[in-house]
Design the sequence.
């Protein structure tokens, strides 16, 4: 791989990174807070690659004292993420990943939970709901109408779970938060995005790590711009 | 597989690259729909792309710093900054790791630049291990992930420092027989900025390529390893530590995120979760790929097992004392 090829491959990668970083597609992969980093890196890599590409016509190929360039053949591999991002454009992680690991809710730093924001129903994140239910006995949830958005997950016994993945850095560290939905209506298909309105219903029978919501209505929606619970 | 010398003889032009990209893109586009129907393939692609997108800025930052060191910092600077005796320089370099905020990907090129600038192998390896493990961003993330348990932050700091210093000392003594691959790339010349540009382009292309190998295998293991096998060993103190240590190597989670994973593994003892956070920044599949490409295969074959065993030992000792 000569210097021109390296620059060319980097140009493609920088372009792909900048492209994904300036659209909502980025949120399938990383948290919104990673956006400025990705944009900066995309611009920097594009600039470096263009500069090198412009100059390599004047330079002889880089001299290798050992007479081979084996180590830099890895530059070709950079095309893999370029194709993955721009051509394949995979969907965000969802029900498949959520079903494959247990949902766990760690103890939060704040012991005192402020009241839920006003609204009837009030929109609340799944992780917020689960933390308040499990670590504060649901004190701040009682008597409130809430709207929670997530995707449908069937548990082993066919029960209806509302689930959403939480990420810290990127999709590689996604972990699910699950809520048992107590509902009489038909359960939508696995992975369907829904907004469930209802009231806190304590913990699910037989599982003291799973909070429950008594559903008043279930609306099928399209996937939110940020598919993760952020 | 063509040999390296054949590849060097054949001149690959950017036109060739363009054709290959076009062909690959068309092939992928034609098959992508049916491939993505497989949820495991879709999940692999998402996690693979996510690791590349997440790590690229840190890798680029690491390359920027290492280029500045390689081109603009004179060797004499490190002679003055580090104690002459390697046994003293190792802990100094390990503590200097506090100053590089970033993940483990960035510290590989920086350590390679330190070796190039004449820093002894022991201190350079101590820095390689400590920088991603004990920098302020990682410590703050750990305190957020383990609320009400500040001792976890202290335990992580001490166990990672212990790992870095012990490996640094051992490598200074025993690493002599394992030559570090020196910088094979020699810029064609020009002024300092041209040298810096060529160095950065070469190093970035190489490191990003290596990162792709690591990201591909980490994504595969992430999707392929069922988490349920963990439940069987969680109750056993010794097996728990070993299981989470191995998991840290396989999952290759960024060191800034591993504390949140560790805190969610509530079925394991605190010592086992500490081991997860101490092993991960020291050895994982993504780092093994980066280090093999940067320092050579013989280096990684010895260094990775040494770092793994030391990290497990340090986490066990500190965990038993503090947690």
Sequence:
């Amino acid at each position: 791989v000569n210097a021109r090829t390296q620059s060319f491959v980097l140009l493609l990668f920088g372009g792909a990174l900048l492209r994904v970083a300036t659209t909502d597609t980025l949120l399938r992969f990383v948290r919104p807070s990673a956006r400025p980093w990705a944009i900066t890196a995309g611009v920097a890599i594009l600039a470096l690659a263009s500069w090198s590409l412009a100059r390599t016509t004047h330079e002889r190929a880089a001299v290798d004292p050992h007479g081979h360039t084996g180590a830099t053949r890895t530059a070709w591999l950079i095309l893999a993420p370029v194709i993955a991002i721009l051509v394949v454009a995979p969907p965000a992680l969802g029900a498949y990943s959520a079903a494959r690991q247990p949902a766990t809710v760690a103890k939060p730093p704040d012991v005192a939970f402020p009241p839920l924001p006003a609204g009837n129903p009030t929109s609340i994140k799944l992780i917020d709901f689960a933390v308040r239910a499990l670590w504060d006995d649901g004190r701040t949830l009682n008597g409130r109408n809430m709207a929670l958005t997530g995707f449908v997950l069937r548990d082993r016994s066919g029960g209806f779970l509302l689930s959403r993945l939480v990420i810290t850095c990127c999709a590689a560290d996604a972990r699910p938060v699950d809520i048992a939905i107590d509902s009489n209506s038909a359960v939508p298909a696995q992975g369907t995005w829904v907004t469930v309105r209802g009231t806190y219903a304590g913990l699910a029978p037989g599982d003291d790590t799973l909070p429950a919501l008594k559903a008043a209505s279930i609306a099928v929606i399209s996937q939110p711009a940020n598919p993760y619970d952020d | 597989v063509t040999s390296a010398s054949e590849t060097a003889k054949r001149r690959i032009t950017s036109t060739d690259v363009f054709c290959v990209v076009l062909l690959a893109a068309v092939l992928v586009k034609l098959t992508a729909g049916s491939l993505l129907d497989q949820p495991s393939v879709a999940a692999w692609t998402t996690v693979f792309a996510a690791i590349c997108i997440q790590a690229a800025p840190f890798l680029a930052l690491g390359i920027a710093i290492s280029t500045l060191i390689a081109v603009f910092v004179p060797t004499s600077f490190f002679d003055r900054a580090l104690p002459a005796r390697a046994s003293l320089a190792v802990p100094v370099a390990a503590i200097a790791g506090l100053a590089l905020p970033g993940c483990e990907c960035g510290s590989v090129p920086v350590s390679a630049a330190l070796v190039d600038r004449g820093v002894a192998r022991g201190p350079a390896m101590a820095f390689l291990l400590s920088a991603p493990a004990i920098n302020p961003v990682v410590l703050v993330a750990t305190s957020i992930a383990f609320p009400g348990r500040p001792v976890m932050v202290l335990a992580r700091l001490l166990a990672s420092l212990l790992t870095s210093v012990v490996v640094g000392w051992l490598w200074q003594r025993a690493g002599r027989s394992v030559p570090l691959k020196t910088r094979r790339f020699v810029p064609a010349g020009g002024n300092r900025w041209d040298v810096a540009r060529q160095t950065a382009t070469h190093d970035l292309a190489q490191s990003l390529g290596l990162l792709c190998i690591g990201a591909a295998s980490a994504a595969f293991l992430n999707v392929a390893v069922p988490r349920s096998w963990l439940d069987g060993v969680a109750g056993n103190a010794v097996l728990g530590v070993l299981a989470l240590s191995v998991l840290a190597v396989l999952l290759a989670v960024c060191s800034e995120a591993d504390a949140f994973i560790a805190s969610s593994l509530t079925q394991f003892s605190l010592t086992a979760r500490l081991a997860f956070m101490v092993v991960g920044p020291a050895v994982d599949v993504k780092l093994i790929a980066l280090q093999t490409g940067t320092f050579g295969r013989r280096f990684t074959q010895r260094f990775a097992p040494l770092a793994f065993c030391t990290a497990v030992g340090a986490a066990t000792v500190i965990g038993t004392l503090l947690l």
Notes: Residues 78 and 193 of chain A are 34 Å apart (CA to CA). DSSP finds five helices and six strands in chain A.
